[in-house]
Amino acid sequence: MKKRRVINEIIQLLYPDDIKCIVCGREIHPNRYGLCSECKLDINVNYCIRCGRHKVGMGDHCDECSQTPVYFDEARSAVNYDTVAKDVVHRLKYGGARYLVKPITQFMLDVLLLSDWSVDCVTFVPMHKKRERKRGYNQAKLIAFELCDHIDAPCYALLEKSAETVNQAKLDRTERLENLNGAFKATGDMPERILLVDDVMTTGATLNECARTLKKAGAKTVYALTFASVPERPLLDTPQTDIALFRR
Ligand SMILES: [Zn+2]
Ligand SMILES: [Zn+2]
User: Fold this and answer.
1) For the segment 53-66, what is each residue's pLDDT rounded down to a tens digit?
2) Domain containing 196: what range?
3) CATH (domain of 181)
4) Counted domains in the chain
5) Which tens digit of pLDDT belongs to each residue from 96-114?
6) Ligand 1 (ion): which residues have CB within 5 A?
7) What is the distance in A from the centroid of ligand 2 to the CA of 224?
8) How far is the CA of 25 from the centre of ligand 1 (A)?
9) For the ranges 69-73, 80-84, 103-107, 230-234, which has the lowest average pLDDT?
10) How far is residue 107's CA from residue 176's CA, in Å, rounded to a whole number?
């Protein structure tokens, strides 16, 4: 095996395959993907290293994470919030389809297994008591408990939603932050390393405020895991129908 590696390295030196994009052939700065920036965008490996959402720009972070202070250490999602995921989440939230918690959690477990996160416990984004009573359950809580059936960590309710807030999707960045300011309260003893769970990440503002609250109460590390995340898209390329769906 060692011999083959040496031979491969010599071949690499003589015929480097990392100075032209492996797809379009244009000359590039050597990078470990072997792709130019445009081709890399096209196959969708362009995600924000902080929040994990698919992003548009070429920097390490999406717009949201580069313009707002981020309190969670890392966030990742299993899938993009597109047609299929929208349907699944909608049925879970508004159609009483609690059986969807199991398959959704399987997707999230895959992400967790690939991560290098180690956590002391799992918690979830809480709903206001009144809304939870009306729906009959909090889907994030169901997912968190299901997740804990598969990993070696307990599930604790560490947050309470103390104020009723308007739907985040209808607000701009500043309004979102104001809307959430002080909306959550930490309860109980705070473990050091926490995995925060929710169904969908839209801009990350809710997860961010939850992480801020947990850290203020003594948590050292907060990772966030969601089933789906809304990709960052250039505003002009976003079809109107999509916007309507996000704002439902
Ligand atoms: Zn290319
Ligand atoms: Zn981000």
Assistant:
1) 988 888 889 988 99
2) 47-246
3) 3.40.50
4) 2
5) 999 999 999 999 999 999 8
6) 21, 23-24, 36, 39
7) 12
8) 6
9) 230-234
10) 28
